[in-house]
Design goal:
Elements: E1 2-5, H1 11-22, E2 27-32, E3 37-42, H2 50-55, E4 59-63, E5 83-85, E6 88-90, E7 96-100, H3 107-119, E8 124-126, H4 144-157, E9 161-164, E10 179-182, H5 190-196, E11 203-206, H6 213-224, E12 231-235, H7 252-260, E13 265-267, H8 269-273, H9 279-288, E14 293-297, H10 315-332
Parallel strand pairs: 7-8, 7-14, 8-9, 9-10, 10-11, 11-12, 12-13
Antiparallel strand pairs: 1-3, 1-4, 2-3, 5-6
Helix pairs in contact: 3-4, 5-6, 9-10
This protein binds phosphoenolpyruvate and manganese (II) ion.
């Protein structure tokens, strides 16, 4: 981090500022120019309040020259992180296919879908039990009963389970769940993130509707700084002025995140587009862009789905998608 001091700052004021910075365990490199003095802050600047420093009378500007996230940063961890869930590996060249309904609706529904997606190559079953819905009048999910049914589907098929947590008070219900999802709406629920940092399970962290990639990585940092390094990042579309799709899929996020971080990055083309027809081409594109996996909504009867039917593929459509993705993978490796 560098701080540019205003023209006319006295040596006493400069010394005073340097002493303050040193009290934060930073080393300070001073460079006196003809017009301005520049202070180079060396050490862990992640705790420095940039706004506070920039608001000081004698400070002209403050700029970060390195990223504020450390544990998620590829600079300090050059090798890809590989997350293991049972026999499934995610990241470092291992591709994961998560699939299943938006919401668990009944035992028959989840088991039928689980068997179908497994037969088409999915290696993780998704399904929401606690659903964050825009309307309080919409179906809120089967909650604890939904978790039970997911575990039945796991017992029937052997597929590990990913499902969303909305409130830390329900954590006990997730004891046998393999991957805990933090949805877009909770990406900056810092208390939730910190608690999930204290457990050992992989966390699927979805990008918020209006969050930058740096904010996503800072949220990963909240989990990792508490000790849980098993974080999978997910690009699921962001809100833009475009209305033709539910969100706008930011595919460049895959490359940007891979550059900045060692964590696996998967893509959710279902929530990104909101339209079943657009899911297969965007799944292929995400695969070609180097994503470490996909998460796809699949329903045995999309027209009657209690949630997100319009973006849900039938099992047959998912089977096609899976073959298309396999061809893309062959072409790029
Ligand atoms: C989901 O995956 O079911 C979901 C609600 O997604 P998002 O948080 O990305 O909207
Ligand atoms: Mn959904």
């Amino acid at each position: 981090m560098i701080a540019v001091l205003k023209h006319g700052t006295t040596p006493e004021q400069t010394d005073h500022l340097i002493a303050w910075l040193k009290r934060m365990n930073l080393d300070v490199h001073i460079s006196h120019g003809a017009e301005v003095t520049i202070l180079g802050l060396i050490g862990d600047t992640s705790r420095v309040d940039m706004e506070l420093l920039g608001s000081l009378e004698i400070v002209e500007a403050v700029k970060r020259v390195s990223e504020p996230f450390k544990q998620a940063n590829r600079k300090f961890h050059p090798d890809d992180t590989v997350i293991e869930v049972g026999d499934v590996k995610i990241g470092g060249g291992n591709f994961v296919m998560m699939a299943g309904p938006c919401s668990v609706e009944s035992e028959e529904q989840i088991i039928e879908i689980a068997k179908a997606v497994k037969a088409s190559g999915a290696n993780i079953l998704r399904g929401g039990a606690f659903k964050p819905r825009t309307s309080p009048y919409a179906f809120q999910g089967m909650q604890g009963k939904g978790i039970e049914l997911l575990l039945k589907a796991k017992a029937e098929t052997g597929l590990p389970i990913v499902t969303e947590i909305m409130n830390i008070s329900t954590l006990d219900l997730f004891a046998d769940i393999d991957i805990i999802q933090v949805g877009a709406r909770n990406m900056q629920n810092f208390d939730l993130l910190k608690e999930l940092g204290k457990i050992n399970k992989p966390i699927l962290l979805k990008r918020g509707l209006a969050n930058t990639l740096q904010e996503l990585l800072m949220s990963a940092e909240y989990i990792m700084s508490e000790g849980n390094e098993n974080v999978i990042l997910c690009e699921r579309g962001i809100r833009t002025f475009e209305t033709a799709t539910r969100n706008t899929l930011d595919l460049s996020a895959v490359s940007v995140l891979h550059d900045l971080s060692h964590l696996p990055v998967i893509v959710d083309p279902s929530h990104a587009t909101g339209k079943a027809k657009l899911v297969p081409p965007m799944a292929a594109a995400a695969t070609a862009a180097g994503a470490d996996g996909l998460i796809i909504e699949v329903h045995n009867n999309p027209a009657c789905a209690l949630c997100d039917g319009a973006q849900s593929l039938t099992p047959a459509q998912f089977d096609e998608l899976s073959k298309r993705v396999a061809k893309v993978r062959e072409a790029i490796v």
